């Protein structure tokens, strides 16, 4: 299951105090207004209970999507680039300083992640895009939650949910890849003082993680075994009284290669986010000391689950070819990849005593998390895949003992014969949003002088739209009508016109 990211929050800032524009005077003010909306939405989302946060994700996504075009327009104006073929002149008066909460940084238990101060619009763009990518990942979790609901979904509902979740994960991958390639964060990586959320190794790891999850979803869409196990464990399901679950034949060897490709992506994500030193050893080790341990454990579990699924499909391929003994060996190899089997002795002995009690208790706790809608799926589907392997092994061992009586080869030797992975997705590059021409035209209006703001009346710069109203009411040049304290509302200005009320 996709990782349950925590959305970051930010401090308040006014772009009008730091930048100005002679060509599009309303751009800094409008960008500030949209950023205030984003800040309030993120603050509200953080205070919601976990079951209520899923319904608020669409609001967070809309706020971030509406804010990004104005943010990129400010960045284009400071860089001297055009927006929709129109030049925007932005003058930097003071350095922009912002604070964002680094939710991927390792903290002490019970404490909130710290807020890290940064400078420049690149810092703001990086965190806003990161938050949008996290939101897409959480939206995919929301779609997949219906697969484990109390009501068993129909095949069309299941396919629709997995397809939508895959689109969100591919969008998250595109955003992380854009951040890795387009935003300059050389100073952050080299100094080691900036937040690790927007560092190059972490962004590369998050992009690989999203692609690994999307690849596994491509397999899950046509994999009937997890759905059959979930239906069997569903206490409210009564379809078994009518007919047994349909288990169609699958393209087992192809699915095994897809799972191995997902395992490779997860392993790359684990290496980049800190489990080992890769091509940039010093940087990766530096980041590894700061990344939260929860996401590292999740990525490690995801890699194991992907290899376990590959072993299961290779076993199904062998069983379809009449090699039941080899299929059982592949299932046990998959259980070893998941960490559910320590060696050959565990095959004969099985789980007994406290080990079986611990396993049952862990499964029940995960089921309660799914019912409550909290942080479920933190094991990356390890328990679910273990149930599938247990069910198939029990069935095939019974068939082999009574009918086929084929020898079961050692499963350790089979792991060396696993094929290479195969890609299925080609993510599209992320295209930054830009303002339309009509929006840019409205942003050319001039801002009212400091301290006055808009006076109403439909004018620009504080002027009234009616000269008669300004003359009759005694306007003071700013479009505002002067009045005498205590006078009747709508009265004149002075006593000379005879309209003073006593």
What are the defining features of this structure?
502 residues, mainly alpha, two-stranded antiparallel sheet, 18 helices, elongated, disordered C terminus
Describe what this molecule looks like in 3D:
The structure is a single chain. By secondary structure, the protein is mainly alpha-helical. It contains 18 helices and six strands. The protein has helices at 27-47, 50-53, 57-79, 121-144, 155-182, 186-191, 200-220, 224-233, 252-275, 281-288, 293-320, 324-337, 344-349, 354-372, 382-404, 411-414, 437-442, 467-473; strands at residues 19-21, 82-83, 86-87, 90-92, 97-101, 115-119. The protein has a two-stranded antiparallel sheet with strand order 1-4. A hairpin with a 2-residue loop joins strand 2 and strand 3 (86-87). Helix 12 packs antiparallel against helix 15. The chain is elongated. The chain starts with 18 loop residues before the first strand and ends in a 29-residue tail after the last helix. Residues 185-192, 240-244, 275-288, 451-482 and 492-502 have low confidence and may be disordered.
Strand content bin: under 5%
Query: Segments where pLDDT lies below 50 for 5+ residues?
Result: 185-192, 240-244, 275-288, 451-482, 492-502
Shape: elongated
Spell the H/E element sequence.
EHHHEEEEEHHHHHHHHHHHHHHH
* Count of alpha/pi helices: 18
Rounded to an integer in angstroms, the radius of gyration calculated over CA atoms is 30 Å
Mean pLDDT: 79
The total of beta strands comes to 6
Distance between the termini: 76 Å
The secondary structure category is mainly alpha
Largest sheet: 2 strands, antiparallel
Lateral arrangement of strands in the main beta sheet: 1-4
* Helix share, percent: 40-55%
């Amino acid at each position: 299951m996709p990782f349950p990211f925590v959305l970051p929050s930010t401090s308040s800032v006014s772009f009008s105090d730091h930048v100005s524009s002679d060509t599009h005077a309303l751009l800094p003010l409008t960008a500030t207004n949209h950023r205030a909306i984003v800040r309030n939405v993120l603050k509200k989302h953080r205070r919601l209970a976990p079951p209520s946060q899923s319904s608020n994700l669409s609001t967070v996504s809309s706020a971030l999507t509406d804010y990004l075009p104005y943010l990129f327009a400010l960045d284009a104006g400071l860089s001297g680039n055009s927006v929709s073929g129109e030049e925007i002149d932005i003058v930097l008066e003071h350095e922009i300083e912002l604070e964002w909460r680094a939710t991927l940084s390792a903290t002490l238990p019970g404490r909130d992640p710290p807020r890290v101060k940064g400078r420049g619009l690149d810092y703001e763009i990086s965190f806003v895009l990161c938050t949008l990518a996290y939101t897409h990942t959480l939206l995919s979790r929301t779609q997949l939650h219906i697969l484990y609901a109390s009501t068993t979904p129909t095949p069309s509902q299941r396919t629709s949910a997995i397809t939508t979740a895959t689109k969100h994960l591919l969008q998250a991958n595109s955003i992380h890849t854009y951040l890795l390639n387009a935003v300059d964060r050389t100073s952050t990586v080299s100094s080691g003082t900036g937040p690790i959320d927007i560092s190059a190794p972490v962004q590369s790891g998050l992009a690989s993680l999203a692609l690994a999850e999307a690849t596994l979803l491509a397999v899950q869409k046509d994999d009937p075994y997890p759905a059959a196990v979930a239906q069997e464990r569903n206490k409210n399901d009564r379809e078994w009284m009518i007919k047994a679950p349909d288990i169609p034949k699958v393209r087992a060897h192809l699915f095994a290669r897809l799972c191995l490709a997902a395992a490779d992506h997860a392993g790359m994500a684990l290496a980049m986010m800190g489990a080992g030193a890769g091509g940039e050893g010093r940087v990766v080790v530096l980041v590894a000391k700061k990344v939260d341990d929860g996401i590292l454990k999740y990525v490690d579990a995801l890699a194991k689950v992907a290899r376990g699924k590959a072993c299961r499909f290779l076993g199904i391929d062998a069983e379809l070819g009449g090699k039941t003994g080899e299929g059982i060996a592949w299932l046990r190899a998959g259980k070893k990849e998941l960490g559910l089997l320590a060696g050959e002795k565990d095959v004969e002995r099985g789980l007994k005593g406290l080990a079986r009690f611990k396993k049952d208790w862990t499964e029940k706790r995960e089921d309660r998390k799914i019912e409550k809608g909290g942080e479920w799926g933190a094991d990356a589907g390890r328990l679910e895949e273990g149930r599938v392997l247990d069910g198939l092994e029990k069935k095939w061992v019974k068939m082999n003992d009574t009918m086929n009586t084929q020898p079961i080869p050692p499963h350790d030797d089979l792991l060396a014969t696993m094929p290479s992975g195969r890609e299925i997705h080609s993510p599209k590059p992320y295209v930054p949003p830009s303002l339309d021409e009509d929006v840019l035209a409205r942003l050319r209006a001039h801002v009212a002088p400091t301290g006055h703001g808009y006076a109403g009346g439909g004018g620009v710069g504080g002027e009234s739209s009616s000269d008669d109203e300004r003359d009759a009411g005694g306007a003071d040049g700013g479009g505002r009508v002067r009045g005498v304290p205590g006078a009747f509302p709508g009265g004149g200005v002075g006593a000379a016109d005879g309209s003073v009320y006593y």
